[in-house]
Amino acid sequence: MTSAPCRFSTPARLPAVLIDSAGRIATVHELAVTQSMLNLALEHAERAGAQRITHINLVVGEIASIVDDSVQFYFDFISKDTLAEGAQLSFKRLPARFRCSACGQEFPLRDGNWICPACQRLGGEVISGREFYMESIEVE
Ligand SMILES: [Zn+2]
How many CB atoms lie within 10 A of CB 122? Predict the structure, then answer.
């Protein structure tokens, strides 16, 4: 089994998540990123001469509008009859961090709270937490 590092990135700004009447979260966006992720994994696997992709390790920012279950659901569907069929997806969450627009302090998101711990003001820019990328794939 080998591990091939590779990176797949989405644009910094992601559209909002839609929730249907049954409470199921689904977005066209997730289907699109899952498809891109699969394509990239297949490309790497083929280049490595792999028979099968066993694991795909993904990194997801805390506030990226990516729902693990949706990605898994789409993945199972679109990976049929490919080298990646049956591959296990694992999701590593990356914490969100902000920079205060008033004083420049950097701080992590705590309980959904964006208030700056240094100056108590609200608002800032997201430094990290919107990522969604493929960290590595494992093949055999
Ligand atoms: Zn501040």
Answer: 12
C-beta separation of 58 from 133 below 8 A: yes
Which of the four pLDDT bands, split at 50, 70 and 90, describes residue 16? very low
Predicted TM-score of the model (pTM): 0.72
Other CB atoms within a 10 A radius of the CB of residue 67 amount to 18
Give 12's Cβ-side CA count (13 Å radius). 5
Distance of CA 107 from the midpoint of ligand 1 (Å): 9
Q: What is the mean pLDDT of residues 8-15?
A: 43
Tokens of 19: 């929730």
CA 14 to ligand 1 centroid distance, Å: 25
Tell me, in angstroms, the distance from the centre of ligand 1 to residue 125's CA: 11
Ligand 1 mean position to 106 CA, how many Å? Answer: 8
Q: Can you tell me which residue has the tokens 């199921």? A: 24
Ligand 1 center from residue 85 Cα (angstroms): 48
Ligand 1 center to 10 CA (angstroms) = 28
In the chain, what are the domains?
2-95+129-139 (3.30.2320.50)
